[in-house]
Design a protein that fits this description.
heterodimer, A: alpha+beta, five-stranded mixed beta sheet, globular, B: two-stranded antiparallel ribbon, protein kinase binding (chain A), autophagy (chain A), ATG101 (chain A), Autophagy-related protein 101 (chain A)
């Protein structure tokens, strides 16, 4: 007996799932998808690449007078195998490799084929140089959290429905992402040559995304960990 | 999917890595550069707090020096005390033992010192001394680390001041906080310190600095914190010490497992009503553990406190022994009297202004019995002293007689003490007027004090706000012993109320995070009908701030921050009130020409800024007016009117000066002279002309007038029926039993029109207050303001999304929007059922669907 369709998509996919959470001084966007086990990596790749596409620039070429020109960025269409969906990504194999590696780790951590929840966060940050005793601070300015809910499907027919549904949903998500990015909100200012490493990831040779960090967590532990509590305790006792 | 498309586009084989050919045609960009690293600061709460602290400490150098000296002082005090106790041979000092000097007969100070090895041996043998030394060593190290950490942090703030705000440290003491704030607002436009908003408002900055203080003020205002006690012998008393405050903050705001997950956001589970009972249980057990920890740490904390008190106060007591008899504003008083969104320096300056009048008021109540005794003791001591002094004058060898010098000193002290109990013969106090002058500065006062100023009860209650310094120190000392018991036995019982409080009174503001909703100072949500906001407020009794806190805070904030642009309704309230006050103050309506419209304002300014005796004198003249004049003119305003009339007759030269300012100001902006002005435009007129220090003086005076006026109006409105405003609202202190007891008797109130239960009873929306339909029971538990009663509960995600559109219903251009009054769940039980029982939660089943009680205010 097939489970009703709404089980596949509810309650995690609602018409508008780009929620905003206010954290301290950093935009935070939440995307929620629910997919089948084998679709996890493709769905994640699609969303992460879409975001990174809009958060990358060409390489900067600085001139002597403190000006610079921007190189070009190639794009590439990628078709998914398990989802009826294709997306555009920056055609940079290096970037793709990095993301694939993280997504692969995420999928391994999720375990194969079982129900589960997980969350990947893509965090864009700026570095702030500090003086000697302290290490450099990384100050995030935008965090994208993608919550994944993995469902188990019984038969092929459901899989087929799911394949289409997830494709549609991902399309909506991509549009959501573009909408968010099109709002004129804070972006780090364009840096001078000496500071370019504080804003952009310059390690790749063909593309230059904003500094980013991808983290994931599997269980839905939202509480603060012991270490952060301890850090705050110490900080608070030290504060004047 | 087709793998291959035929298109005209072809892949360029050249690599992208180097710059393409034809560079001269390329767009050339100029980097904005991060010349100033002040864009996008990570922790704005901390940042603004530090900016404020540095301003209050008068710049980096002052702060640094002060801290260094404090560290040195601490070291010195400990070292010197130990030295005096262990390394001095007092027998030599007192000349009980003779030193055999060969060359001279004089005893020198070094003779009295014990040799180093003897000295250190005696220290090592003494366990108590070692213990004290160790604790103070730990304390000192802690201070040192804190100092180093702070130097690093504040160095950054210093460069923020010099580079971004363009204020050098040398001139920082001469800037007011309002000026600093204005520059921060400017900076935001350029650098985007906060990335959520294009522009910061003054309120945002205040909210960040005072986030937790606002919560504390609100909790004291709603009598949530267990600080009132009835110990067997002392009668009703308030116990609120720094240790207790520290523990409260630890539990609520930042300790491990506290309600807040970060400095700026409440944990999401506390925002939902679903499992409030479970959360309350969790909180209760946390309080229990923290209480036990307090109990275990008690001896250490006690020693610490004693040392701390010793180091902090011995020097003061030595310098001026009278200071122990002097009074100070108690910690509870500071919480009770604080407006929402009032910074420390604003509060302190206003309380300091009220200090003189307050101590005079307390001096009215000298016990006649003590006076008689003191007079006679002073007589005897005086005669002895006189004889001794006379003898000394005759022949100073008298001084060499043993104990004569010391007895002269003792007698002198004795007379000084006695004199403080003898009232001045030529002074007549009028408590009622003094209390009014006090009110002009402290702005809050329970209703029943008025007219009962001469009563001893009033004095006792006032002394809870304004206590002896000695009592303050004593309370601090016993605090480690008492605190654990308060936590375990009093606070723990209130855990459910606390959970409800944080859920119902937290709003999420874009760019600020979670703040206390009272601090929004929204008349509609938290106004009290008896305090000027009748017809405007939609708050249930649970939501109304007591003692007119919302209204007064709003006025205070609008007056101290004239640049602030409040929401339209609020602006309306402010301008309406200002207009009324001005009209009453000017008295004769027909003389409202542009000149006289502005002149009395400045006269008023001189009036209340003047010495309190003058103020009380003037108020004294008008004291009689109140008795036979319950007409529309209020007492405070009539006092002001008489003053403005009397000083218009001449005399006061400074009045002319500022009148000149004001009239030139009114010339500069002719439209703003009379009633139709809004708050901001009216104040910006002064801004142009007067320096900002004068402005702040002026603002505090204006606030005093408004406070008096609001209180007066409130008194008239409530018409002597003051059942609600019982001092302390004892009912909520012993939570559960009295709630059930009151549940039945809530309707038996003397006022039939507006049946106000005393407090915390059941959620009656006051009949006058809600223009929208009173929610039926199924929309009751949905506290979302944006939801109309008929609307079905939308799924959580989309619902919250809609609300993120930003409170459209409240300031929408389409006039009134049908809105359900926001009835919070919990804290108030429906149908007066017992407060603590799980069954009282309406509609258990639908709880999980409930959206968190958070709405955004843009």
């Amino acid at each position: 007996m097939a489970p009703p369709l709404y089980l596949l998509v509810s309650p995690y996919i609602q018409p508008a799932t780009v929620g905003k959470q206010i954290t301290m001084n950093c935009r935070s966007e939440v995307l929620e998808v629910s997919v089948e086990g084998r679709q996890v990596d493709e769905a994640m790749l699609a969303l992460l690449h879409t975001i990174l596409l809009h958060r990358s620039t060409g390489k900067f070429h600085y001139k002597k007078e403190g000006t610079y020109s921007i190189g070009t960025v190639g794009t590439q269409d990628i078709d998914c195998d398990f989802i009826d969906f294709s997306f555009v990504r920056v055609s940079s194999d290096e970037l793709d490799r990095v993301i694939r590696k993280t997504v692969g780790e995420f999928k391994d951590a999720m375990g194969n084929g079982t129900d589960g929840m997980g969350q990947i966060s893509l965090e864009f940050y700026q570095k702030k140089k500090s003086r000697w005793p302290f290490s450099d601070e990384c100050i995030p300015w935008e965090v994208w959290s993608i919550k994944v809910n993995v469902v188990n499907l019984a038969n092929e027919q459901e899989r087929q429905i799911c394949r289409e549904k997830v494709g549609e949903k991902l399309g909506e998500k991509v549009i959501n992402i573009v909408e968010v990015i099109n709002q004129h909100e804070y972006l780090p200012k364009m840096p001078t040559q000496s500071e370019v490493d504080n804003v952009f990831d310059t390690s790749l040779k063909d593309v230059q995304p904003y500094l980013y960090k991808i983290t994931f967590q599997i269980t839905d532990t939202l509480g603060t960990s012991v270490s952060t509590t301890m850090r705050r305790l110490i900080k608070d006792t030290l504060a004047l | 999917m087709a793998a291959h498309f035929d298109t005209e586009y072809q892949r360029l084989e050249a690599s992208y890595s180097d710059s393409p050919p034809g560079e001269e045609n390329l767009l050339v960009h100029v980097p904005d550069g991060n010349k100033l690293p002040w864009h996008h600061i990570e922790n704005l709460d901390l940042f603004f707090q530090r900016v404020y602290n540095l301003h209050q400490k008068n710049g980096f150098t002052c702060m640094l020096l002060g801290e260094v000296f404090e560290l040195v002082q601490l070291l010195f005090v400990v070292g010197f005390t130990v030295f005096l106790a262990n390394c001095v041979d007092y027998d030599i000092l007192f000349a009980n033992k003779f030193v055999n000097h060969t060359d001279s007969s004089k005893v020198t100070l070094p003779d009295a010192f014990l040799p180093v090895d003897v000295c250190s041996a005696s220290i090592r043998d003494n366990v108590a001394v070692m213990f004290v030394l160790m604790i103070s060593g730990v304390f000192w190290l802690h201070r040192l680390i804190k100092f180093i950490y702070n130097v690093c942090c504040y160095w950054e703030i210093r460069s923020f001041y010099t580079n971004a705000l363009k204020m050098s440290m040398a001139e920082l003491p001469y800037f007011t906080w309002q000026e600093v704030q204005a520059r921060i607002v400017e900076i935001q436009k350029e650098h985007q310190i906060c990335i959520h908003k294009k522009e910061l408002t003054e309120l945002d900055i205040y909210h960040r600095i005072l986030r937790f203080k606002n919560y504390m003020v609100a909790m004291v205002n709603k009598s949530l914190l267990p600080v009132h006690f009835r110990p067997p012998l002392l009668g009703e008393s308030v116990f609120y010490t720094r240790g207790l405050k520290y523990n409260f903050e630890l539990i609520f705001f930042w300790g491990p497992g506290s309600l807040f997950e970060s400095e700026w956001s409440l944990k999401p589970q506390y925002k939902r009503g679903g499992n409030r009972l479970e959360l309350a249980d969790k909180l209760a057990s946390r309080i229990l553990w923290i209480g036990i920890a307090n109990l275990l740490l008690c001896p250490v904390v006690l020693v610490w406190q004693i040392l701390y008190a010793f180091f902090s106060y011995t020097e003061v007591i030595k310098r001026e022994p009278g200071s122990l008899g002097a009074r100070c504003w108690s910690l509870y008083g500071r919480c009770y009297l604080r407006h929402f969104n009032e910074l420390d320096h604003e509060l302190m300056s206003r309380l300091s202004k009220g200090y003189k009048a307050s101590s005079r008021y307390m001096n009215c109540f000298l016990s006649p019995l003590l006076t008689v005794v003191a007079k006679n003791v002073a007589f005897f001591a005086g005669s002895l002293l006189a004889v001794l002094i006379a003898l000394t004058i005759y022949d100073e060898d008298v001084l060499a007689v043993e104990h004569v010098l010391s007895s002269i000193t003792l007698l002198g002290v004795c007379i000084t003490v006695c004199r403080s109990f003898i009232p001045d013969k030529h002074l007549v106090y009028c408590p009622e007027q003094l209390l009014r002058v006090i009110l002009a500065h402290i702005h809050y006062m329970p209703d029943h004090w008025q007219g009962n100023a001469h009563r001893y009860e009033t004095r006792d209650q006032f002394s809870q706000l304004f206590q002896y310094k000695a009592v303050f120190i004593l309370e601090e000392l016993i605090s480690p012993l008492v605190t654990p018991f308060i936590l375990i036995f009093s606070l723990r019982r209130k855990s459910l109320e606390i959970i409800d409080f944080f859920r119902n009174f937290t709003v999420e503001v874009v760019g600020v995070g979670d703040t206390c909703s009272f601090a929004q100072m929204d008349i509609r949500q938290h106004g009290h009908p008896a305090w000027m906001s009748e017809g405007k407020t939609e708050a249930s009794i649970y939501q109304q701030a007591e003692d007119g806190k919302t209204e007064l805070s709003l006025m205070h904030f609008a007056i101290t921050n004239p640049q602030w642009q409040p929401p339209t309704e609020t602006t309306h309230f402010i301008s309406q009130l200002k207009e009324r006050v001005q009209r009453e103050a000017t008295g004769d309506r027909h003389t409202l020409t542009s000149l006289s419209g502005s002149e009395p304002r400045s006269l008023i300014a001189n009036f209340l800024a003047g010495p309190p005796s003058l103020a009380s004198l003037h108020l004294g003249q008008n004291g009689s007016l109140t008795n036979h004049g319950p007409v529309g003119v209020s007492d405070g305003a009539s006092a002001l009117r008489s003053l403005s009339v009397s000083s218009m007759r001449g005399s006061c030269s400074s009045a002319h000066r500022s009148a000149g300012h004001a009239s030139s100001a009114s010339r500069a902006m002719p439209g703003s002279s009379t009633d139709a002005r809004t708050a901001s435009s009216g104040s910006s007129v002064w801004e142009g002309q007067l320096t900002s220090l004068v402005l702040s003086e002026y603002a505090s005076t204006e606030m005093s007038i408004h406070a008096l006026y609001i209180h007066e109006l409130h008194k008239q409105q409530s018409g002597g029926e003051l059942s609600r405003h019982t001092w302390h609202r004892q009912d909520s202190d012993d939570s559960s039993d009295s709630v059930t007891e009151e549940g039945g008797s809530g309707g038996g109130n003397p006022n039939p029109r507006n049946p106000i239960p005393r407090s915390h009873t059941f959620p009656i929306t006051t009949p006058i207050s809600s223009p929208g339909p009173i929610p039926s029971s199924n929309s009751g538990p949905n506290p979302d303001r944006g939801t109309t009663p008929g609307q079905e509960v939308a799924p959580l995600q989309s619902n919250s999304q809609r609300r993120y559109g930003g409170n459209t219903d409240s300031v929408g251009p389409g006039g009134r929007v049908v809105r359900s009054a926001r009835v919070p769940m919990g804290g108030w039980t429906e149908e007066g059922r017992g407060g603590q029982h799980p069954e009282t939660v309406p509609e258990e089943g639908s709880e999980d669907d409930m959206p968190p009680n958070i709405h955004k205010v843009t």
